[in-house]
Amino acid sequence: MNLPPMILASASPRRRDLLALAGIAHTVAPADVNEDVRAGERPDAYVERLAREKAAVIAARHPAAVVIAADTTVVLDDEILGKPGSTAEARAMLRRLAGHTHTVLTGMAVSRGGRTASAVERVEVTFRDLSDAEIAAYVATGEPMDKAGAYGIQGFGATIVERIHGDYFSVMGLGLRRLVALLAAVGVDYRFGAGP
To answer: How many CA atoms lie within 13 A of 23 on its CB side?
Structure first.
């Protein structure tokens, strides 16, 4: 059976790597959507909405494809911590996260033939205590600047995470277990070693 092409609606190299890890051949077509939080919007609803909107944008351009979209954010005390706009903001975020547990939410959506399945993965992440010098040194690597919450668990940031409760891959930006379930929900069966 010939399967439709798979498109990742994201420019994230981490998401590309995760699809490759699972053997899912794909092309990349980033979706440009307004990422402003709506008044009164809960963080979990926010990431799921963005994932669905990204999937819809690319599905409209490529109606024969299976489109995979995701959005990840960090939440501390019900506040969404997006990507830092400056090194000072990155340092401030990391100071707030140090020694505390926060939530990483990843909304995922899969669209195929006018059908969309979506879900939100929730992971609790605890940072170890960090000195101001450690925070400054980490920010100086540049790694925090394009990541929600100002850290990447798959890079240098792995050294500041004390523990996680939930799906590690969701913290990276794409929960593979959940993705397989969403693919199945739109009629695409994952085959080990051959992708969908």
So the answer is: 8
Q: Tell me how far apart the alpha carbons of residues 104 and 164 are, in angstroms, rounded to a whole number.
A: 10
Q: For 110-160, what is each residue's pLDDT tens digit?
A: 999 999 999 999 999 999 999 999 999 999 999 999 899 999 999 999 999
**Cα–Cα distance between 168 and 174 in angstroms, integer?**
9
CA distances from 84 to 73, 143, 150, 179 (A): 12, 11, 6, 27
pTM over 0.90: yes
Q: Which of 112, 1, 123 is nearest to 65 (CA)?
A: 112
Catalytic residue numbers read 71
CATH topology of domain 6-185: Maf protein (3.90.950)
Per-position DSSP letters for 145-179, written without gaps between them: GGSGGG--TTTGGGGGEEEEES-HHHHHT--HHHH
What are the backbone angles phi and psi of residue 37, rounded to the nearest 5°? -80, 135
For the stretch 151-189, pLDDT in tens is 999 999 999 999 999 999 999 999 999 999 999 999 999
Domain coordinates in residue numbering, the chain: 6-185
Type of residue numbered 141: T
